[in-house]
Amino acid sequence: MHYMKSLVPQRVKNVYHFAQAVLANVWYGFPSRKLRIIGVTGTDGKTTTVQLIARIFEEAGQKVALASTINFKIGDKEWVNTSKYTTLGSFATQKFLKQAAQEKCDVVIVETGSHALDQYRVWGIAYAVAVITNVTREHLDYHKTMERYRRAKKRLFGQAKVAVVNLDMENPEEFLEGNYEKRITYSMQDPSAAVLAHDIALRLEGSTFQIEQQAFELALPGMFNVENALAAIGVGVASDISLDIMAKALKKVTGVPGRMEKVSNARGLEILIDYAVTPNALEKLYSLVSTMRPRKTSQIIAVLGACGERDRGKRPIMGEIVSSYADIVILTNEDPYHESPQRIISEIARGVTGKKRGKNYFYILNRKKAIAKALKLAQESDIIVITGKGAEETMAIGEERIPWNDKRVVEELLNA
């Protein structure tokens, strides 16, 4: 069945997806027309940006719904996204929007992936605001070229009235061309940006920065989270929310599940769980982690894999980046789908440099055993970084979805 599916060209599949999307909109009565919808796209930072935007609107007294890679929310009701999709299929998406409309939500924030845009899953959604965080290498197994990947992202901006664009990304002009009522740009360095962060101070537990005369405090570490916050602030500015209200909202965000998430333990270890699945995200994550060593002797222990049936070209690049920062590298299984886990690992391994197998470099296919090995090797003040799954609740092996959560596995092993 899987093999048969893979023989059908995507163009042909998309005709079916388009018909489904039209049907879903008609079936649920085009619910997006009754809502103010904000779409967030980009390679990295989408999920965090969605959560930050939601907090800003809640602080401004609005009723919010959101759909993201990790969770769904309508007003006070929140539940986990167990689907492994950033954006659900068209029927599930339209059903969610109809519920948000019935619950009289003022605003809905939808994390919108490039696959969903290419496959018409979000066709018919009247996006009021489109946000782009960045575009770096990802999903080339599907889109084939960066140009086509960018073009898929750009579809989000097709019908939006407001564009919120990161001036620090590559070629932002492409996303600013369009018939918009408002263009809101944000940056950490370009003085022409509408939302410009200055006096940025990074600390291990977060950061502070200023926009105009307003001070902001963020409990999420790293420059990339300042960037995510600026995207959210850009949406707030487009919606006439004051900087003061936004500063209050962002100060209250203490963390996002599976994004630089710490696992508390009695062993004096820093254990971090992060979703990073792209070379860009790994580079940003590990360059931040390398500044976090509590002592000069603290080691960084990396546990990583790569997703099966996805862009194979990025695997050695991921291996190279992680091995350049980490003292110990443990390669393991992630979500192989129908691909050989052994092949995935050996392709990441091609990029690993400066490590000796069996000494500071290991292949452990079983993810639980790989995490156990990291915990066994770790000494007080060491940092263990587990990437690739974040807050996901399942592991995809063939057609099966096995219950799995990195944080819970770490906690089980620590308790044992």
Q: Provide the helix percentage.
A: 25-40%
Overall average pLDDT: 94
The radius of gyration is: 21 Å
- The CATH H-level superfamily of the largest domain is Mur-like, catalytic domain
**What is the count of β-strands?**
19
Characterize the largest beta sheet: strand count, sense, and whether it forms a barrel. Answer: 11 strands, mixed
Q: What proportion strand?
A: 15-25%
Structural class by secondary-structure content: alpha/beta
The end-to-end span amounts to: 41 Å
Strand order of the largest sheet: 4-3-2-5-1-6-7-8-9-10-11
User: Which spans of ≥5 residues are poorly predicted at pLDDT below 50?
Assistant: none
CATH class of the largest domain: Alpha Beta
Report the CATH architecture of the largest domain: 3-Layer(aba) Sandwich
Number of helices: 15
CATH topology of the largest domain: UDP-N-acetylmuramoyl-L-alanine:D-glutamate ligase
Principal-axes geometry comes out as globular
**How many independent structural domains?**
2
Task: Describe, in plain words, how this protein is organized in 3D.
There is one protein chain. The chain has 416 residues and is an alpha/beta fold. The chain has 2 domains: 2-251, Mur-like, catalytic domain (UDP-N-acetylmuramoyl-L-alanine:D-glutamate ligase), CATH 3.40.1190.10; 261-415, Protein-Tyrosine Phosphatase, Chain A (Alpha-Beta Complex). The protein has 15 helices and 19 strands. The strands form 3 sheets. The chain has an 11-stranded mixed beta sheet, with helices on both faces. Helix 12 crosses helix 13. It starts with a helix and ends with a helix.
